Amino acid sequence: MTIEQHELYEKRTKEMETIANIIEALPINEQWIKLFTAMAYYRGWRKLPEHKQEKLINIAEQNSPSVATIVEQRHTKLSLDKIERIATVVTDEADRAKIRDYLLNLSWENAKKSINLIIASYEDQAA
């Protein structure tokens, strides 16, 4: 490993440690902390600005732990924006249950299409 590579590795390690410390300090359940830390690592987050921290808290407060488990185990492609929209836009528990079923039982592409349709129906009602 060259000196430049080692310095870059040290920098990235410190960035990840900083993000992990910020996530651990958020007032959220341990399961969400674990999920968000894994997302930060696997998605290569470099920073965790205030607005993103608020988004994480909002997601954790609005969703059940079962959603965290499903996302963690099955669908790492589900974006924070999509998780937040599910948490804030979809208000009916029956529709949230459908979304959980889609995530568990469908391929990512089919689950994404079905989830987008549910979210769109709520956004159409609001318009």
General description of the model:
The chain is mainly α. It has one domain (3-126). Helix content is 80%, strand content 0%. It has seven helices and no strands. The protein has helices spanning 3-25, 30-43, 50-62, 65-74, 80-89, 93-105, 108-126.
Q: Which secondary structure elements does this structure contain, and how are they paired or packed?
A:
Blueprint: H1 3-25, H2 30-43, H3 50-62, H4 65-74, H5 80-89, H6 93-105, H7 108-126
Helix pairs in contact: 1-2, 2-4, 3-5, 6-7
Number of strands: 0
Radius of gyration: 17 Å
Main sheet? none
Compute the separation of the termini in Å: 56 Å
Helix content: over 70%
Number of helices: 7
Structural class: mainly alpha
- Strand percentage lies at under 5%
Number of domains: 1
**Overall spatial form:** elongated
N-to-C series of helices and strands: HHHHHHH
Point out poorly predicted stretches: none
Query: What is the residue-averaged pLDDT?
Result: 87
